[in-house]
From TrEMBL:
This is Uncharacterized protein. It comes from Actinophytocola xanthii. Residues 25-36 have a biased composition (Basic and acidic residues). It comes from the Bacteria. Residues 25-93 are annotated as: Disordered. The chain crosses the membrane at residues 103-124, 130-148. Keywords: Membrane, Transmembrane, Transmembrane helix.
């Protein structure tokens, strides 16, 4: 047995297999272009367009009168006196922001110092080569302090009638 007989994917074999697949599809009618029946010129050869579509003859005549008001529900104009300023919702005043704890203030100061060292290390008199690592460590420490202080379970509100809405 030769080495060529063992190789099934020769170009001749692939071309023959492709031609066989295409011939099978053409026998089934795949690939034939269907004529567009909406256009009278596109009728298949040997056939003539006999009658116009029946659907056009059976359409009822349009009623004579004003055209419908497309998206509006009525022909009347909107009367702005129907709504008053007293009817709109006014949300209650938000509760005051809580006081920052000392450790939170320290973390915010660390982040601010780190940003200042990264932007302008010359303000403190440090070379950028020295100030950059210090600023990155300071920024990491300040960010970690802020993230570690986030509460996992918020404390319940002091006012039992206050509703915070849906909570997941």
């Amino acid at each position: 047995m030769t080495k060529e007989a063992q190789v099934p994917d020769r170009p001749e074999d692939v071309d023959a297999a492709f031609a066989e697949i295409v011939a099978g599809l053409e026998r089934e009618g795949v690939g034939r272009r269907a004529p567009d029946l909406d256009e009278p010129d596109a009728a298949p050869s040997g056939t003539a367009v006999a009658d116009p579509p029946v659907a056009e003859e059976r359409q009822p005549p349009r009623p004579a009168g004003p055209p419908p008001t497309a998206w509006r529900g009525s022909d009347t104009e909107w009367d702005w006196s129907w709504s008053t300023d007293e009817e709109h919702y006014v949300p209650p005043e938000p509760p005051p922001l809580p006081r920052l704890r000392p450790l939170t203030i320290v973390a915010l100061v660390l982040v601010a110092v780190a940003v200042a060292l990264l932007v302008a290390p010359g303000l403190v008199g440090l070379a950028p080569r020295v100030a950059t690592p210090i600023a990155l460590v300071t920024l990491t420490c300040g960010g970690a302090m802020l993230l570690l202080r986030v509460r996992k379970n918020p404390k319940p509100p002091e006012d039992p009638t206050r509703d915070d809405g849906a909570q997941l």
